[in-house]
Amino acid sequence: MASSVHADMSFSQNLVLWLHVAFVAFTIGPVTLAIMSTPRYIRQLDTKILRYLNRITFVFGLSTLGVLVAGAALASMTSVASKPWVIVAETLFLVALLLLALITRDQRKALKALEDAAGGSGRSSPRASTADVLAPAGTDLVEVDSTLAQDDVTGSQAGPNGGSGSTAAATADFPPASPAPPAALHVASVERGRIAMMGGLVALIWLVILVLMVWH
Questions:
Q1: Lowest mean pLDDT: which of 46-60, 85-99, 110-124?
Q2: What letters, b where the CB count within 10 A reaches 16 and e where it falls short, cover 57-88?
Q3: Lower CB count within 10 Å: N or C terminus of the chain?
Q4: CB neighbour class for 196 (10 Å; exposed up to 12, middle 13-18, buried from 19)
């Protein structure tokens, strides 16, 4: 039955049909895979991969508009645009596009939260900077940290007239870097759950639309 319907279609209709199928194959798959992979890399605190997945979601999510445009054009050319199953499929697709926009936003929020938690906004440890300055060329940084720790102990034991007291005062001006803020990690965890939930809903919508297309 499907082959006979396909044979009755004109060249232009077949061209739009293959264009529709090409958009489905090259956009729906990558964007779904990127969304499903996002929660795992948020959990692993991998900002590099997460930034890459966010770009994939945005680019291929925007490209899925080609699926809707080609599908609507094909429905109009075959005089089925007013059929209930076509209207339902187009409505579900618009809902999926809205969810893709929300997922892209949540990916960026999770990425920003992880960068803040990891100090990716440009903050650096003052203690590490001091060690880099004091360490001569070829000196192991671990040895320098040990030397600084010994100077702190000596400086705390020496009196105000001792030479080590100045070293202790100098190192006291550079407190250790504060730990990663737990609030930022909490935001990333919340966004991970939202992305997983909306990603599953988008995948379910794709499946329903596919069933409607194959059934009719």
A1: 110-124
A2: bbebbeebebbbebbbbbbeebeeeeeeebee
A3: N
A4: middle
